[in-house]
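Quick one, T. Sequence first:
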Amino acid sequence: MGYAVFETARYMGKTGAAVKRALGLGSFCLYPIIFDMSINQPSSYVFPHKHLLGIEGLSRPDIEALLELADEEVILSRQVEKKKTSLRGRTQINLFFEPSTRTQASFELAGKRLGADVMNMSVANSSAKKGETLIDTAMTLNAMRPDLIIVRHHAAGAVQLLSRKVDCSVINAGDGAHEHPTQALLDALTIKRAKGRIEGLVVAICGDIMHSRVARSNMICLAALGARVRLVGPTTLMPAGIERFGFEIFHDMREGIRDADIIMMLRLQRERMHGSFVPSTKEYFRYFGLDDEKLALAKPDALVMHPGPMNRGIEISTDVADGAQSLIREQVEMGVAVRMAVLEALARRLPNG
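Structure tokens:
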């Protein structure tokens, strides 16, 4: 797991708690009020990459620029008129080889809000089921001259392979246990808007670290933005040699989330497990599921996240998932905004973009 060397330029925008202090609003509100005047002055940032295949390889300014653009998209998405013309005339293909609800729906909505012609390709009814290879599929789609292809695939590295065979921009919507970059970006945006910052926060990522592409992308993204990242889970669900990368490792959940600012729960990826990694789901919840008793060990204003879909009663209790400290619904909203930002940033690099 090679990590890129990240630049250390700091985000200087005045948001969240700083704005409330400046206006004398106090700290009674759980979520900071965000005043963003940039909606009338859209970001002119030019994303330096043709594709978004992972968080690895992005600089800190790349990540922060995408988050700033996504902040603008949040404001747009909360208006009655949610349409832009950034992708008018562009063709977007959503190519999902794995089942998806949130990610595919949010990419479709993001593309339509930006004015793109969006096609959802059903792999269940595609030639892939008839033995067509991924490369053949890529070449077929390339002949249709799309501008953007969003790909989810069960094999790590498949999206990168496809990106080499097409002329358009490709976005990784999750490849095996490798990466899920837009999920990490939406998680970072959710944290930043809720806490006013990411730098210096203690973020505990808990659960099935070994099989989670969400964990890998978040580890890279949050570390790049200055968070103190903890990895919490049983030894059987930790990647071998993970200690070498400088993260704090905990096999006792109570210690791992103690005094944390953010607790990010992960789903047990049973579809990627070959063998027995936990004795039983009941035993797993007892030791590594997040309930009110364990949550009380974190900071009083700690916030809870989950990428979904949730397994209630296995990795998280219903009371916590639906409680006042949960950001899970906010994550879904930020998902559309982040994907709009990524689509728009990549479209600026397209011919006549």
